[in-house]
Automatic annotation (TrEMBL):
GO terms for molecular function: metal ion binding; metalloendopeptidase activity. This is Insulinase family protein. Residues 262-433, 731-884 form the Peptidase M16 C-terminal domain. It comes from the Bacteria. It comes from Acidiluteibacter ferrifornacis.
Length: 978
């Protein structure tokens, strides 16, 4: 699916009212009342839209697939609503809405409240003081009073409560126009959740502010370490030189970060967090009438207010090309963007069509003329449609020896082709069908439905318009698109060249010294106790029964066929799975990478891609270390045509030398680029080095000499012979098993006797006899640390204890690690630790810890994490909450759709013939703190680690690292194997 909004990867009563009685274990009943709500015809989500008397919008969509509910509480306020003199407020507030109110998050608000007021006042003085010596004294006062106030604070009570409910994905995000609070909760916890959320927005308190401010500092510095973030910010600055989209970043300016105002944050909350500016969006298994009555009871007392009208700053037309440059350590790339009118405008509709004609992953102008013809390393296009304005953004990365200016010219040449109408007449309709298929997939998931609800609310779109936004595109003709392109895509763009080099202009947020605060994890507010005491009907777990849940059969030559029926829509997914990958044949991934550039005796390379796109099918082939996956997805009505087409390609791909030569050159360029990417260095190269040493699957690659020695016929022979090897077929779609088998017998071209899988090259996971430290020098402001310790081979008997350990110790915001490292000591923005279970019985468990922090905090951060790993704090209350959370998640989790097939695949790889969650569910109720402590003593405490560090060498405290073990500096050649 092509993501349309690319970066959008954010006085009530308290008391027990109606006990929710819904889910798998109880019959649903409707309310006796019949509140008015809006619906529209032919809505695939059957969404009901209610409006409370105070203006609160409620979007409810029923999906009974699993007893869970995806929730989003949206506020129509984001960074564009920040005061120009105090940017970052919306984002600050998002963080603080997890800190509690006068009813929870505190053990004694009557004593805490006055201290918080003092801190509030001191921040105002601090904000308006310019003398650095005086500021230091003021901050010391803030820090001192914060220590006293923290004795009454109970950190992360919000997360404890939602975790106990069995919530997943608890988070929030802030963007230009919205702040959104997210949870995925069990159906039987709706009333608990509503009670908590109503309290959350009633009277929030800005407690533990200066440690959370430290986290925001870290977040800002992480963004300054991100070349992509800097480049996107520069692009929007050029597109919107006056409007807040370009002039107010979500995190805020460095100056405003250094001078926060709690008074302004409270003012912002009181202005925008009002019911007539908020929406509750829910999709899942519930009775909508009952849920609406509960929402009304909990949120109906909120007082509506007049929300300030946002005055749109009008931008002057862009009549010239604006060129900007950014520098950073990552590989070079560019963004170029055009500005248009906002949501609901004719332009916002037409740019979607222009975007799809340019790049749709398969048959767009950029796809075929640049990517497939290998004229650039990669290129694409996406739209960003907002309320006031929209952007159409193109991006590209250069081949070896190619300049960014040449990439820009190639992208513009495709824009010229668009303006010339140099695309087939059928492509426009195919693009619309592609968007429809993407929408069907989106609305098959609860998160997709709530995301669409949030978009409609934030952008003030009528639901009918939102549901039919793709259908309305059918009114446009090819002539309309071409004329629009001619008029609107000229020398009126902003281009940002991201070059590789040192950014001399980057500032760092210098943070004042703070004293760790108390987290009081064993305390519990009366509110938490009341929430925990609320009664609800248990939902019984549903474990997979592989014999019942998965249809299994064999073709005549023994190929296993496993299928799960799709009763939701007319889409299918088909996989051929081979138990061989790069470890079996070092060249197989190259052969599959080569495949998209090939034609057949019947079709040219571009023609076969267009044939797939015409019938609404997407074909992919890829290889991992141990597997090859050949997949096809699309509309069931074209299943047979799609299978025939990709079987034809596999059997008849014609060798061509030029694409192979280009592919080899691009692989060499990508390898060079990977050595510039800190994410690839740490989570790819260093992670593999920690696990295997220098000889790992990560470094199991062909040398440059071997790459250049490859022949096209050698690779096409591998493609032609692929179906002759042992494999299995996985299918999720509307077809019955018998119909599927008949179609495969007819169309799946395989020999009567299949070849056995070639032997695999073995890579040995290294033992940790002593702790060692490995460092890679990288130009960045932060340091990132990964600690990895090998344990025993996969042991299903440890799964239950590991699940509770991860819940209790190192997972979410309520975990011990998060509380101590971030909430109390503000040592890291991102930090976690898990006991990682392998997906293969032949591989080991690992203790894994991660810290992302400022380099100057490395000493304290390492000491803090090491102490926690060796001396796990014990809290009976946190332990019981962790048990409840784990059980509630299992009770309400439903493995559905294609996930059933992948779950079975993993079980088999682990040597299991049953759903391992059953063991966890049966074991957890009887577990004690002593059991958890014993698990920690056996598997975690005093472990020996390979500690992998990436950071700027001159900023790292190497002497401190040497205290943990001998330090070895690794070159990138050692890490990558080339």
């Amino acid at each position: 699916m092509k993501i349309r909004n690319y970066f959008l990867l954010f006085a009530v009563s308290f008391g027990i009212t109606i006990t929710t009685s819904c889910g798998d274990s109880a019959e649903k009943t409707s309310s006796s009342q019949n509140p008015a709500y809006e619906t529209i015809e032919n809505d695939p989500t059957n969404t009901r839209i209610y409006t409370l008397d105070n203006g609160l919008k409620v979007y409810l969509s029923v999906n009974e697939e699993a007893p869970r509910v995806q929730t989003s509480i949206a506020v129509r306020a984001g960074s564009k609503n920040d005061p120009a003199t105090a940017t970052g407020l919306a984002h600050y507030l998002e963080h603080m809405l997890f800190k509690g109110t006068d009813q929870y998050g505190t053990s004694n608000f009557s004593q805490e409240g006055p201290l918080l007021d003092q801190i509030d006042s001191l921040y105002e003085v601090y904000r308006n003081t310019r003398d650095e010596e005086a500021r230091t004294v003021l901050y010391a006062q803030i820090d001192s009073i914060s220590q006293v106030a923290s004795t009454f604070a109970i950190a992360n009570e919000y997360d404890k409560m939602v975790s106990e409910m069995g919530a997943k994905g608890t988070n929030a995000y802030t963007s230009f126009e919205q702040t959104v609070y997210i949870n995925d909760i069990p159906t039987n916890q709706i009333e608990k959740w509503l009670t908590l959320e109503a309290e959350r927005f009633r009277n929030p308190q800005l407690r533990l502010f200066h440690t959370e401010l430290e986290a925001v500092y870290e977040e800002k510095n992480r963004s300054l370490d991100s070349d992509f973030s800097k480049t996107f910010t520069a692009l929007f600055d050029g597109l919107y030189p006056n409007h807040q989209y370009g002039q107010q970043t979500t995190i805020g300016t460095i100056d405003h970060l250094k001078n926060p105002s709690l008074t302004e944050i409270k003012k912002y909350f009181n202005t925008y967090y009002v019911p007539n500016n908020m929406a509750i969006c829910m999709s899942g298994d519930f009775d909508p009438d009952m849920v609406f009555e509960q929402i009304k009871a909990k949120f109906g007392g909120m007082e509506s207010k007049v929300v300030p009208t946002f005055e749109v700053i009008k931008e002057s037309p862009l009549n010239t090309v604006v060129v900007k440059e950014e520098k950073g350590p990552d590989a070079e790339f560019l963004y170029m963007g055009y500005r248009f009118d906002g949501v609901g405008s004719k332009a916002s509709e037409l740019i979607q069509l222009c975007d799809m004609i340019l790049a749709n992953r398969t048959a767009g102008l950029i796809d075929l003329n640049l990517n497939q013809q290998q004229k650039v390393l990669n290129a694409s296009s996406f739209t960003y449609i907002l309320s006031d304005y929209s952007s159409h953004i193109l991006n590209g990365s250069p081949k070896q020896g190619q300049t960014l200016e040449e990439v820009k010219d190639l992208l513009l040449s495709q824009m010229d082709s668009l303006k010339a109408g140099a695309f087939p007449d059928w492509l426009l309709e195919a693009c619309i069908n592609d968007l429809k298929i993407s929408r069907i997939r989106q609305l098959d998931e609860n998160w997709g439905r709530t995301s669409m609800m949030v978009d409609a609310f934030i952008q003030k779109r009528d639901w009918k318009e939102q549901v039919n936004d793709i259908e309305v595109l059918k009114k446009y003709t090819k002539e309309d698109v071409v004329n629009f392109a001619k008029t609107n895509y000229n020398d009126n763009y902003v281009v940002v060249y991201k070059r590789t080099g040192k950014d001399e202009s980057t500032q760092e947020v210098v943070k004042p010294k703070i004293t760790p605060v108390q987290v009081n994890r064993d305390d519990a507010s009366p509110f938490l106790k009341d929430i925990s005491a609320m009664k609800f009907d248990d939902i019984q777990p549903r474990f997979l029964d592989y014999d019942q849940d998965i249809n299994q059969a064999k073709l005549d030559n023994g190929i296993k066929v496993r299928s799960v029926k799709n009763s939701n829509n007319d889409l299918f997914n088909l996989y051929y799975v081979f138990d061989m990958g790069k470890n079996n044949n070092i060249k197989i991934d190259l052969a599959l990478d080569y495949l998209p550039f090939l034609g057949t005796s019947k079709y040219s390379p571009s023609e076969i891609q267009q044939e797939f796109y015409k019938i609404g099918c997407n074909f992919q082939a890829s290889a991992s270390d141990e597997k090859v996956y050949v997949s096809l997805s699309g509309l069931t009505e074209n299943f047979e045509a799609g299978v025939q087409l990709f079987e034809h390609l596999l059997a008849d791909a014609k060798p061509e030398e030029a694409p192979l030569k280009n592919l080899v050159n691009d692989i060499l360029k990508e390898r060079a680029d990977d050595k510039l990417s800190k994410g690839t260095i740490l989570f790819g190269g260093l992670s593999a080095y920690a696990q295997y040493g220098s000889n790992s699957p990560f470094t199991n690659i062909l040398s440059e000499k071997e790459l250049n020695a490859l022949t096209s016929s050698e690779l096409t022979d591998m493609i032609h012979s692929l179906n002759s090897y042992e494999h299995r077929v996985l299918y999720y779609g509307p077809m019955e098993q018998d119909e599927l088998i008949a179609s495969l017998k007819k169309n799946h071209n395989t020999p009567q006797t299949l070849k056995p899988i070639p032997a695999s090259k073995d890579f040995v996971e290294i033992d940790n006899e002593k702790t060692k430290v490995f460092v890679v020098d990288y130009d960045m402001k932060q340091a990132e640390i990964m600690m990895l310790s090998k344990k025993e081979l996969y042991n299903p008997k440890t799964v239950a204890a590991a699940a509770i350990y991860n819940e209790y110790f190192g997972g979410g915001m309520g975990s011990i690690v998060f509380q101590e490292m971030r909430e109390s000591k503000a040592l890291a923005y991102s930090v976690y630790s898990v006991y990682r279970s392998p997906g293969d019985s032949a591989k080991a468990h690992y203790v894994m810890a991660y810290i992302g922090a400022q380099a100057d905090k490395l000493k304290e951060a390492m000491a803090g994490m090491t102490d926690l790993l060796n001396n796990m704090p014990e809290s009976e209350k946190s332990f019981e909450l962790a048990k409840k959370a784990a059980l509630e998640k299992i009770r309400t989790e439903r493995i559905t759709k294609f996930s059933k097939l992948w779950n079975f695949e993993t079980a088999q790889k682990r040597g299991l013939d049953y759903d391992i969650r059953k063991d966890v569910y049966e074991a957890v109720p009887n577990m004690t703190m002593a059991d958890l402590k014993a698990f920690h003593e056996q598997y975690i405490k005093d472990s020996k680690y390979n500690i992998m560090v990436i950071g700027k060498k001159s900023g790292l405290d190497i002497k401190e690292l040497e205290k943990y073990g001998p330090v070895t500096y690794l070159t990138l050649e050692q890490v990558f194997g080339y």
